[in-house]
Amino acid sequence: MQSELRKKLLDAFSNNQEEFLSGQALADLVGCSRTAVWKHIEELRKEGFELEAVRRKGYKIIKTPERVTADEIRLGLKTEFMGRHIHSEDVVDSTQKVAQRHVFEGAPEGTVLIAEEQLSGRGRMDRKWHSPKYTGIWMSVILRPNLPPAKAPQLTLITAVAVVQAIEEMTGLTPEIKWPNDILLNGKKVTGILTEMQADADRIQAIIIGIGINVNQQEEDYPEELQPIATSLAIEYGKKLERAELIKVLLVKLEKLYSIYLDQGFYPIKLLWESYAISIGKNITARTITGSISGRALGITDDGVLMIEDSNGTIHHVYSADIELEK
């Protein structure tokens, strides 16, 4: 009940961002007593929100906290279902593990798990993901599409397009996608995506999409071995970004693309993905668990499978691999 009241309170502030709202107006909008409103206002202050209070005028939020909270993301979020249920933590093992527990407990589609720090963040093939506190976006999103398990890899590609579009809108920069799940700026990794599935033989029960975005790190924040290959939005853009704002933009983009996908299929997403892909038309080497394939990347199939044409003209379909661009 309390969280529902908090959501309504933040919706009221979101819909009246330039205005002061009196305690009575907030009580009427939220459907509770003025005393309850005051208690929630105090809780928001404890989270780091700065609220201006003016006698006979009421309250207005003038600054949101440095720490990204569920309430800050809800403030002004313009989605139907994506991010309508948010669980934020300070430190977790990994948001993917937290999300798995919420899936088991019946979390609805669009649920978001976010943390300020991950102690065991990971990417594909269980590689460690460096996720220091108060610098990036470390989050997982739960989806429950009525699809067969074979379609699951497409959700990684949809998410990659959503991340690129969100970064474009926030910074004007245009990242590139390196198949299947890396987002690059100036050839360095800025985002990783990890998709995990819970499914029956013929139907997906849940997809958990892990998204790690390097937002406000400076070069010295990275271990020495990562500095040549990793970057952040702040490094490339030249100034820090509001992380909660980027999350909100990302959730809007993801909801829109996901809805297009469910309504129209993968083809519209495929065209968008290929327009951002760094490898299409270039010579690459794909390192798979069974060996390496070198050749020209032709694009992806309607199922999201990478196609590589080798020197003999044979077209290989690659389902999972590490990609290296030939220099």
TrEMBL record:
InterPro entries: aa-tRNA-synth_II/BPL/LPL, Bifunct_BirA, Biotin_CoA_COase_ligase, BPL_C, BPL_LPL_catalytic, HTH_11, Transcriptional_repressor_C, WH-like_DNA-bd_sf. Its EC number is 6.3.4.15. Biotin binds at residues 118, 122-124, 189. GO terms for biological process: protein lipoylation; regulation of DNA-templated transcription. Residues 23-42 bind DNA. Keywords: ATP-binding, Biotin, DNA-binding, Ligase, Nucleotide-binding, Repressor, Transcription, Transcription regulation. Belongs to the biotin--protein ligase family. This is Bifunctional ligase/repressor BirA. It comes from Cytobacillus praedii.
